Amino acid sequence: MTYSTIRTEVHDRVGLVQINRPKALNALNAVVMEELAIALEEFDADPDIGAMVLTGDDRAFAAGADIKEMADASSVDMLKADRISRWDRIRKINKPVIAAVSGWCLGGGHELAMGCDMIVASETAKFGQPEINLGVMPGAGGTQRLTRAVGKALAMEMVLNNRNLTADEALRYGLVNRVAPVELSLGNAIQLANEIAARAPLAIRFAKEAVNNVYETFLTDGMADERRSFYFLFSTEDQKEGMKAFMEKRSAEWKGG
To answer: Are 95 and 40 in contact (CB under 8 A)?
Structure first.
């Protein structure tokens, strides 16, 4: 498919999706979000792809939603357009998605990064939810995922008073996985994704789902889902191969079945 606002590449078993609106600091309009969802869904359906990396450029991962699209909208307009459903589509991707963040990562861009499974930040990354400055609030998971990541007190300050986090602060508070120099951050994210993609596909899928369930279900429900998935994996060829390879002290050869 030909895209107008994103670029895609393949690096070994990793699908790379790059937001490409540099003049707008990669602001997320409806076209960007639709193309991101389509590209990630296509990689998700590709058996040769085991994980994905989502990135922007050195100046901005995404500096927020495109305000020009929303400035004159009414509540009914926003409800009918259902913009946020595209964030939901990305959250439902089965394979791991890693955000490689450099520069500004604000508002809807921050929500997009938090909707990924992991975040690799460059030293220049800045994270924030500035919607309060526009008379609104986060609407694509910002209040929920941010609070779960950094805790109530800091989330309140970020959401109510536009506090931004540096990359080092984001690492300290558990918002990101690692911080790297600008020139190495994307490569680090792709390397991490390739390491994950080399593992048993079904186990990766169920393990991702189980971790996400911690944030979306009560503990007892999450434990039950985890247990069912754990038991189910013992019916797969990859489980037999993985344990046999471990006992034979060799690398496993994953089949995805």
So the answer is: no
Q: What is the rounded distance in angstroms from the CA atom of residue 85 to the CA atom of residue 209? A: 19
- Three-state SS string over 179-208 comes to EECHHHHHHHHHHHHHHHHCCCHHHHHHHH
Residue 144: φ, ψ to 5°: -80, -55
Q: Tens of pLDDT along 183-217?
A: 999 999 999 999 999 999 999 999 999 999 887 77
How big is the CA angle at 197 (ends 6 and 105), to the nearest 5 degrees?
A: 40
Higher pLDDT, 19 or 89: 19
Report the side by side order of strands in the sheet with 126-128: 60-62, 104-106, 126-128, 165-166
The catalytic residues are: 65, 108, 111, 131
Around Cβ 45, how many Cβ atoms within 10 Å? 10
Predicted model pTM: 0.90
Domains of the chain listed by start with CATH number:
6-197 (3.90.226.10), 201-247 (1.10.12.10)
Are 100 and 109 in contact by the 8 Å Cβ rule? The answer is: no
Q: How far is CA 119 from CA 53, 62, 228, 241, in A?
A: 9, 14, 28, 30
CB 81 within 8 A of CB 70: no
Q: Is 181 left (phi over 0), alpha (psi -120 to 50) or beta?
A: beta
CB contact at 8 A, 167 and 124 = yes
What tokens appear for 183 in the block? 């020139």
Q: Does residue 37 sit in helix, strand or coil?
A: helix
Residue with tokens 């990305």: 90
Kind plus residue range of the DSSP H or E element containing 167: helix 167-172
Q: Which residues pair with 15 in a beta bridge?
A: 10, 52
The pair phi, psi for residue 187, each rounded to 5°, is: -60, -40
